[in-house]
Amino acid sequence: MTSSANKPSSLDSAFAHLADVVDQRRDAFKAGQADPKTSYTALLFSKGDDAILKKIGEEATEAVMAAKDARSSNLAAEQQKLLVAEMADLWFHCLIALSQFNLRPEDVIAELDRRLGTSGIEEKAARKASGQE
Ligand SMILES: N=c1c2ncn([C@@H]3O[C@H](COP(=O)(O)OP(=O)(O)OP(=O)(O)O)[C@@H](O)[C@H]3O)c2ncn1[C@@H]1O[C@H](COP(=O)(O)O)[C@@H](O)[C@H]1O
């Protein structure tokens, strides 16, 4: 599998580019310029919040099942490929959900950047101590 060391393009810019495409479809759909019959993205925007959020649940479940299959196959190449495809479906639908809520992948990446270097164990303990949980 690909590692970050030999990745030719930046992950951020790949996400940003796809998010631009999705946002353009969203805006074109709202302006009556994208046809849900020819654009899957426009079709989901035409259906609204519930359909978009339901797809995330479905795609997450499919990714989990693909991961279980990959493990059962001892990480066989074909199962790994299927797992990557399901994860791609999940990430794509997350981008649609972000767009539906006027958010961008950059917002999520900024949040992950903010968390860099903070142990999840420490973060949870701090939340408990401050009564947030
Ligand atoms: N990356 C994707 C992408 N990934 C997955 N999908 C679609 O997501 C759909 C959902 O996958 P499922 O496995 O649930 O398949 P399904 O059973 O057909 O879906 P449902 O009937 O259950 O909704 C499929 O139709 C896939 O083709 C995508 N559709 C579009 N894109 C990107 O979005 C761009 C714009 O797409 P359009 O809006 O269709 O022009 C494309 O150029 C691509 O870059």
Summarize the structure in short.
Its main location: cytoplasm. The chain has six helices and no strands.
Q: Which descriptors apply to this entry?
A:
133 residues, mainly alpha, Helix Hairpins, 6 helices, binds phosphoribosyl ATP
Q: What integer is the average pLDDT?
A: 91
Total number of beta strands: 0
Q: Hey, roughly how much beta strand do the residues contain? A: under 5%
Structural class by helix and strand composition: mainly alpha
Supply the number of helical segments. Answer: 6
> Which CATH first-tier class of the domain at 12-102 would you pick?
Mainly Alpha
Secondary-structure element order, as H and E? HHHHHH
Radius of gyration: 18 Å
How much helicity do the residues have? over 70%
- Main sheet: strands, sense, barrel: none
N-to-C span: 38 Å
Query: Spans with pLDDT under 50 lasting ≥5 residues?
Result: none
| CATH superfamily heading of the domain at 12-102 | MazG-like
- What is bound: which ligands? phosphoribosyl ATP
> Which outline best applies?
globular
The third-level CATH topology of the domain at 12-102 is Helix Hairpins
Task: Provide the CATH architecture of the domain at 12-102.
Answer: Orthogonal Bundle
